[in-house]
Specification:
The chain is α+β, with helices and mostly antiparallel strands and 598 residues long. 36% of the residues lie in helices and 17% in strands. The strands form three sheets. It has a nine-stranded mixed beta sheet. Helix 8 crosses helix 18 and helix 16 crosses helix 18. The chain starts with a helix and ends with a helix.
Length: 598
């Protein structure tokens, strides 16, 4: 949650003046934060020559009208999705597209609805190469190369570079050898410069670029919504092995929040900027963006590789990949549990207030009704005396016979004399675990948590399940061993904190209370603890349990830690099976979180 809160606090830079190359590199690019440069390209020749209101369409037709460009054809216009399954790339004479723009502008100027469809073979300025019955609004000049250092053969509008050559950013290109030395990106090597032009309103799908991007508006207006890379889980990018892995799976027209539930929160982490003619926007690599373009908008963008990507050595890729995936997974786990903390803390506070105000007899009687010894049917045990005492109420629970008889003898006796074994609460540090954890010494919140845990096991675990021995497995087995072995008694939402009562109970406990409850279960209800760990612990429950272990470890000495784990795991017939169940569940949760993160 901390990382996402920080994402909310990231604010886009806004400049009225263009920074120097050193300022841009140290204050903007290195921080990977978007920046708007107001009026920064108004001195371009293109700014005046390409303006549709000043004869710019005629100028462009004269300069490059004979060129054949590759345009994007979308049946979902005005939305243009980057996924190649949802659009076509088709060749079109540039002059034909200019004709569409002129027609649209004429209709706009006369407030008449533009002609919706153009038939193949209709009278236009150039033969139309589009397939079938196509609306002019379904055409978008997207990423048409003006310069491309990586593939010079793809360059279709090279002659237009002269109109942007004097711009301060443009020195970036080695092919622009005749241009003046720039002051902005003079240390960068531009990968490509592209023209973006639409004749009608258009929307891009939400996506990120693998390069740094400088988007310049020559004519018209664009609204850009931006999300930091940390918002990736909320935008559901397409599979990383696919052709459109940098695009969101969420449709813009009618998002399905039942399929993409986290997307409902995505707007909280977005920022919007409106770019007018003459403005430029720096979009760092990895930042998701979605762009709405007005009618007849012309843009030029520059892509260059970031310093981070330039410095990565291929032989280190696998290592960094593992580090980054682990870091993403850890962050996602923290966000899930931190988000849950707010609700559970309120619940804990409310519960403790109720316990402090409740008659001790009422609470303990409900506690007694839920407590039951769970053991193997074949193993008989002798009488065990457990004493509960709060105030004047003393309760003796005396289990009798074996578990197959499910027989408990409960004797309640109110008396003014009690066990003189209570002691003041001490900090965990230096507190030695007692040989027998007396239930009447538990704090009210600890007693309540114990009550709930024992009740859950009693209500959800069948005797037949306990009769099946659980054999420890090698840690080399699948991460989903816990699900495979115990899936029949786990809830369907194995990874959802809100739906896991065990995880919620454990998460509310402070370190000392967690130690109290763990001791009480291990020493007084060992079969209940065994059933809880081996038959009820879900992946998210295992994650919470190990985190509580870590919290407790930080507040206890090494000697006390060793004694605690000796008692805790000593409650199990097979200690290795218990460890396997906890570790396999934790790893299963981490695997699912990793899939969410990526």
């Amino acid at each position: 949650m901390k990382e996402m809160e920080e994402s909310r606090e990231i604010r886009i830079f806004d400049f009225d003046q263009i920074p120097s190359a050193s300022e841009f590199a140290s204050q903007i690019e290195s921080k990977n934060i978007p920046a708007v440069f107001k009026g920064s390209i108004k001195h371009w020749k293109a700014f005046s020559k390409w303006n549709p209101s000043e004869g710019g369409l005629d100028y462009l037709q004269e300069r490059v009208g004979s060129s054949v460009v590759e345009v994007m054809l979308s049946r979902t216009a005005p939305v243009f999705y980057g996924d190649i399954r949802r659009h076509e790339r088709v060749p079109l004479p540039f002059s034909t597209f200019i004709g569409y723009c002129k027609e649209h502008k004429k209709k706009m100027d006369s407030c008449v609805e533009p002609e919706r469809h153009l038939q193949v073979g209709s009278e236009t300025e150039e033969p139309c190469l589009l397939p079938g019955d196509v609306a002019s609004q379904q055409i978008y000049l997207a990423q048409v190369p003006v310069m491309n250092n990586e593939n010079e053969e793809r360059v279709q509008l090279e002659s237009l570079k002269e109109d942007i050559q004097k711009f301060t950013f443009i020195f970036l290109c080695p092919s622009f050898a005749q241009s003046a030395q720039p002051a902005f990106l003079e240390t960068k090597i531009i990968a490509s410069i592209n023209l973006w032009m639409n004749n009608a309103q258009a929307k891009s799908s939400t996506h990120y670029d693998p390069h740094h991007n400088l988007l310049c508006i020559v004519a018209g207006c664009k609204q850009v919504a931006l999300w930091p890379p940390s918002a990736c889980p909320m935008l559901y990018p397409m599979p990383i092995y696919g052709e459109a892995s940098n695009h969101s799976s969420i449709t813009l027209e009618s998002p399905d929040f039942s399929m993409y539930p986290r997307a409902e929160c995505s707007r909280e982490y977005s920022q919007k900027v409106i770019l007018h003619a003459g403005d430029a926007l720096f979009i760092p690599e990895g930042w998701f963006h979605q762009i709405d373009s007005d009618d007849i908008t012309i843009g030029v963008n520059f892509w260059w590789q970031s310093n981070i990507m330039s410095c990565l050595s291929e032989h280190m890729d696998a290592y960094y990949l593992r580090r980054i995936i682990r870091r993403l997974a850890d962050r996602e786990v923290n966000q899930i549990l931190d988000k849950a903390s707010a609700g559970t803390k309120r619940l804990k506070r409310h519960t403790c207030e109720l316990l402090n105000n409740e008659e001790p007899g009422q609470f303990l009687m409900s506690m007694v009704k839920a407590i039951i010894y769970i053991t193997q049917p074949s193993i008989a045990f002798s009488y065990v005396l457990v004493e509960l005492k709060i105030g004047n109420l003393q309760i003796r629970i005396m289990p009798v016979g074996n578990y197959g008889d499910r027989t408990d003898k409960i004797l309640t006796d109110q008396t003014n004399h009690g066990l003189d074994q209570s002691h003041e609460r001490q900090d965990l540090q230096g507190k030695e675990p007692q040989h027998r954890s007396l239930l009447h010494d538990l704090q009210p919140c600890s007693l309540q948590a114990l009550h709930k845990l024992v009740s859950l096991v009693h209500d959800h675990v069948n005797v037949s399940d306990l009769g099946q021995p659980v054999v420890s497995t090698s840690t080399s087995n699948s991460d989903l061993n816990v699900k495979d072995k115990y899936g029949k008694i786990m809830t369907t939402k194995l990874f959802c904190f809100e739906d896991d009562p065990v995880a919620k109970i454990l998460w509310t406990l402070e370190a000392h209370a967690f130690q109290e409850v763990s001791f009480a279960m291990a020493q007084n209800f060992p079969r209940t603890l065994e059933a809880l760990i081996l038959h009820m612990l879900s992946p998210v429950g295992a994650e919470v349990l190990t985190r509580k272990f870590d919290e407790m470890d930080q507040q206890t000495s090494e000697e006390d830690r060793n004694k605690f784990y000796e008692i805790f795991y000593g409650a199990f017939d097979d200690q290795f099976a218990a460890m396997d169940a906890i570790l396999n569940g934790k790893e299963s949760f981490a695997l699912q979180v990793m899939l969410w993160s990526c």
